[in-house]
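Notes to self after the Tuesday call (sharing in case useful).
The group wants a holo model before anyone commits to mutagenesis around the pocket. I volunteered. Ligand is iron/sulfur cluster. Logging inputs and output together so the record is complete.
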Amino acid sequence: MQVEIDKYSGFCFGVTRAIKNTENLLNNSDNFFCLGNIVHNNKEQERLKKLGLSTIDYEDIDKLLNQNLIIRAHGESPEIYNILKRNNLNIFDNTCPVVLKLQQKIRKIYLQNPKNQILIFGKKKHPEVNGLLGQTNDSAIIISSFEEAKSIKMRFPFFLFAQTTADLDEYLKIQNYLKKFLSGNDHEDFFFDTICPSVKNRIPQLREFCKNHDVIVFVSDYESSNGKMLFDTCKKNNESSYFVTDEKDLKTEWFGNFKSVGISGATSTPIWLMENIKNEIINLILNQNE
Ligand code: SF4
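Result:
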């Protein structure tokens, strides 16, 4: 039996950068707070907590004064930055450069077109989406599905953006639907496919990976929207796909007499967790054959 970890899975560039910067900070002091969970993965959260990272929720941020505060890869809204400055917090900003560029683009379009509709395709209340919404003084409309897009009363001109981890197929469906409201104008001026290239590339790579293995074990956290989307891709391409959060979720019967097992994960899944799962699968298979 072959057990292979998907070489394209695991932390994306933005998350890797945020985690590395945080580890470096924690090497010198353990007096750091992160606003919200640094990554949508409980296991990685627990590991960083042991290194000294504290997490503060949005409801409590008003009470935190004169401390070191880490901003995660998702970025924040201008309103949050105002609170942080007012509370004299020492900010370590790990907003992913791709997200930052998107925030700036939305801000620019909003300032140039303050009365027009700005649509953002993404998950409502997701921290990245909250940060994008804040660039429009909370005036943008968040669309979480094609069905929802159809229910919006469109006013031309409008502008469409996407959360960096959004589903490309669903985005394209929305874009195609909205094209009919363009009245012959050039769509490049109104539609901005801002899905991150590292997320976009992952779907075709994952499709291939799923087809090349008998069983797929997908490692993520229920909190991760990217994990949910990538697991849907696994299910569509390999019926024997299973979602796990850690080794304890594995079941011996999944592996039967199959020849190959593929392990993949979300942009928030640490590689060490996938390696632990690989070792546990090998143990399960060995015990089964004894
Ligand atoms: S998915 Fe892309 S944009 Fe989002 S944090 Fe990762 S690298 Fe940055």
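Two things stood out.
The chain has three domains: 2-10+198-289, 13-96, 98-197.
The mean pLDDT is 94.
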